[in-house]
Write a structure and sequence with these properties.
TolA/TonB C-terminal domain, 3-stranded antiparallel sheet, 3 helices, elongated
């Protein structure tokens, strides 16, 4: 009978990992992201892709924009990436630099649709009442859409 041999997976190059993994990286980005005011006013949304190198100490070097959204969003994405600190990158005792990419998403909260209710009140004509100066009143009420 033949015995099945277990294949050992060899990792020749290990990329540096953000401490805590991908979820921790997403939490860090969302906690430190400051939406640029001009992009917010223009309601600009999208993804900025940043390419960077992580040196052997886990620090980010030479960050650059691969996919741009607007200048202020690009600057904010670069600021976030430069704040990142990764674990040390060493493979078999050799210090190295690793190339990485990060997609920084800029998205605004949706504005709720508004409902407008318009009422028109017209006074009724009676024989004993004097003639009104205005022919009627108009009231508009704007209510935000409520989702339950």
């Amino acid at each position: 009978m033949e015995e099945k041999r277990k294949k050992s997976t060899k990792k020749f190059l290990e990329k540096p990992q953000y401490p805590g993994g991908r979820k921790a990286l997403d939490v860090f980005v969302s906690a430190h992201l400051q939406y640029p005011e001009d992009a917010m006013k223009q309601r600009i949304e999208g993804i900025v892709t940043v390419a960077f190198q992580v040196n052997d100490d886990g620090r980010v070097e030479s960050a650059s924009i691969l996919k741009s959204l607007c200048p202020s969003c690009d600057e904010e994405a670069l600021r976030i990436v430069r704040m990142l600190r990764y674990g040390q990158a060493r493979n078999r005792g050799v210090r190295l630099k690793a190339n990485c990419k990060l997609h920084v998403r800029f998205s605004l909260a949706p504005t709720p649709p508004q409902t407008t209710i318009t009422y028109t009140v017209t006074p009724s004509k009676t024989k004993s009442a004097p003639k009104p100066k205005a022919s009627g009143y108009s009231v508009s009420i704007v209510l935000p859409e409520v989702h339950e």
